[in-house]
Amino acid sequence: MKVTSLSLRNFRNYDNLKINFSDKVNVFMGKNAQGKTNLLESIFYCCIGKSFKSIKDKDIIKWEKEDGYIGLTAERKYRDVKVEIKLSKTHKKVVLINSLPIKKIGELIGEINVVFFSPNELKLVKESPDERRKFMDIDISQTNKRYFYLLSRYEKILANRNKLLKNSDNIDYVKDTIDIWDRALVQTAKKIAFERVKFVENITPYTEKAQSYLSGGKEKIELKYISGCGVKLDEKFEENMDKLLKKNLEKDFRFGYTTIGVHRDDIDIYLNGVEVKTFGSQGQQRTVALSLKLAELENINAITGEYPILMLDDVFSELDSDRQKRLLKFADRTQTFITCTDEKKINGEIFEIVNGEVFKK
User: Fold this and answer.
1) Residues pairing with 223 in the sheet
2) Are 229 and 262 in contact (CB under 8 A)?
3) Strands annotated E in 2-92
4) 266-271: strand order across its sheet
5) Sheet holding 100-101, edge to edge
6) Euclidean distance between CA atoms 115 and 298, whole angstroms
7) CA spacing 20 to 30 A to 52: which of 35, 70, 109, 359?
8) How many CB atoms neighbour CB 232 within 10 A?
9) What Rg do the C-alpha atoms of the chain give, in angstroms?
10) pLDDT per position as a tens digit, 289-333
11) The domain 1-113+309-361 belongs to what CATH superfamily?
């Protein structure tokens, strides 16, 4: 899987841009606030259908412009893909795949697979379970469109159940009407939990190898899936989760939201037997986060037969020289996009970015 070209119009600080890429390493070099990360963001947007930043679509359109455009072409093993995204400050975005408009963003995910890493990805290790669920969901969705729609269905069911809990004054009325949402929630939760358990099992050996490689064999990582459903994932899952929902109903009614379910799943991460979120150094946490991302590469390749593209945003400023070299060697197996403030002796196609303009060196 290789991204061959990118076209931008009124995207962030870019007026008009057309750029072709190397199928190996592409380096976006320049001072801060010149537009290096914006290029990664535009590529990511064409892969996932949204930015890796928590923003509205209209916010990525160039200041004082009413519309924008991103076009991306890619080569896959069996076919080429062209993704076009038309952005507007007044209308919904339009997404086209090979010139055909799509109705749902789920149709885009998996067309061009991507793994993104930046220093901000430390939150994957350090912050709330929501970050680790998002990590699972993006990775699984890129290789399993059915999973993406399961998530969407679960969120709608959960929202309806919570609305009933929050807006009802009488617990007896809730008891009489909540069964329909409980049955739907349990059935969908089981399917999501199954995919997440399988995902953690699949990436564990890849994460172990990546962590050992990046640390020079000094660190052993362990991943443990933590279910938010409160019951085992076995043949009695639906029956047992339904019972637990009924047992917790009065508590849910008081709180106004559902206290168990896959929306509370997590991954516990241990390094040399110690929980890395609480006791790991920042350097260890950074390496763990990077190992998880490199494991994504291997997992997607194992499922699809193709490596996804890899994006490394200002990562080298956070790594010592030995880990920089190891990371670059690992990245050789796929097309890689790197942002940095200097070349750092990286072998690849070098693009200098100056205030929204790109100069090939």
Assistant:
1) 269
2) yes
3) 2-11, 14-20, 25-29, 67-75, 80-88
4) 221-226, 266-271, 274-275
5) 14-20, 2-11, 67-75, 80-88, 94-97, 100-101
6) 10
7) 359
8) 11
9) 22
10) 999 999 999 999 999 999 999 999 998 877 888 888 888 888 889
11) P-loop containing nucleotide triphosphate hydrolases (3.40.50.300)
